Amino acid sequence: MVLHDLNLAVTYADRLVVMHEGAIVAQGEPATILDDNLLRGVFRVSLSFSRLPPAGQPFLLPQQHLTPVPPGSVVPLRAASA
Question: Do 65 and 45 contact (CB within 8 A), yes or no?
């Protein structure tokens, strides 16, 4: 399944694959791979990042769009787990 709504994806998916410009930059359980730095780098959006009780499910609230990244720019790569 492909979802671009991250809050919906973290609610229903056991694993996520985050891609940027056709390359995988992170993959794994949503609670372990999603963080502010990764999402800012990939989506170029300032956001409020928190976790919902009781399981600590990530919750993302976009705040503002950041300066666009020129095509081909490097996004911080997180170690991808198998």
Answer: yes
> Tokens 């950041």 belong to which residue?
66
Query: What does the chain come to in residues?
Result: 82
Question: What is the spatial distance between Cα 61 and Cα 72, in angstroms, rounded to a whole number?
Answer: 27
pLDDT in tens, 7-41: 888 888 899 999 988 899 999 998 788 877 888 88
Q: Are 81 and 32 in contact (CB under 8 A)?
A: no
Q: What is the DSSP string of 30-47?
A: HHHH--HHHHHHHH-EEE
Buried b (16+ CB within 10 A) or exposed e, 53-69: eeeeebbbeeeeeeeee
User: Within 13 A of 18's CA, how many CA atoms are on the CB side?
Assistant: 27
CA distance 73 to 30: 25
Q: What is the pTM of this model?
A: 0.65
